[in-house]
Amino acid sequence: QVQLVESGGGLVQPGGSLRLSCVASGVDITQYAMGWYRQAPGKQRELVAGIASGGRTNYADSVEGRFTISRENAKNTVYLEMNDLNNEDTALYYCNAGLGVALIIGYPGAYWGQGTQVTVSS
């Protein structure tokens, strides 16, 4: 059974940083595209960052230069480093996995985690 478990969310002040982790089981992440999506209250879920199995990455315009997605294959884990956080980054962040490359341009894969909450507030 495929499971994705996120962690690392929390409350942070504007300008602060967090690192989210997604530990996958039942999936070899070297064979999948992986990504992070987020959903804020009253808004649709949106792609934040994605990484293809070959290493190509894609970021939302609002986070490019501030966020970095990476994978540690030996631990079957994907990370999202978030820097210079602002109030608009407040959302529930979800890990996502799928075959192919469509995921990294905003077409999500079949597998989702439960989400981890990120709240940016002064």
Topology:
Elements: E1 3-7, E2 10-12, E3 18-25, E4 33-39, E5 46-51, E6 57-59, E7 67-72, E8 77-82, E9 91-98, E10 111-112, E11 116-120
Parallel strand pairs: 2-11
Antiparallel strand pairs: 1-3, 3-8, 4-5, 4-9, 5-6, 7-8, 9-10, 9-11
Describe this structure in words.
- With 122 residues, the protein is mainly β.
- It has no helices and 11 strands.
- Strands 2, 4, 5, 6, 9, 10 and 11 form a 7-stranded mixed beta sheet that branches. A 4-stranded antiparallel beta sheet has the order 1-3-8-7, with no helix packed on it.
- It is globular and about 40 Å long.
- The relative contact order is 0.32.
- The model has no long low-confidence stretch (mean pLDDT 95).
Continuous helix count = 0
Q: What's the overall average pLDDT, rounded?
A: 95
What is the helical fraction, as a range of percent?
under 10%
Strand segment count: 11
Q: Tell me the strand percentage band.
A: over 45%
Supply Rg: 13 Å
> Which parts are unreliable, with pLDDT below 50 for 5 consecutive residues or more?
none
Query: What general form does the structure show?
Result: globular
Distance between the ends? 40 Å
State the secondary-structure class.
Answer: mainly beta
Profile the largest sheet.
7 strands, mixed
How would you spell out the order of helices and strands?
EEEEEEEEEEE
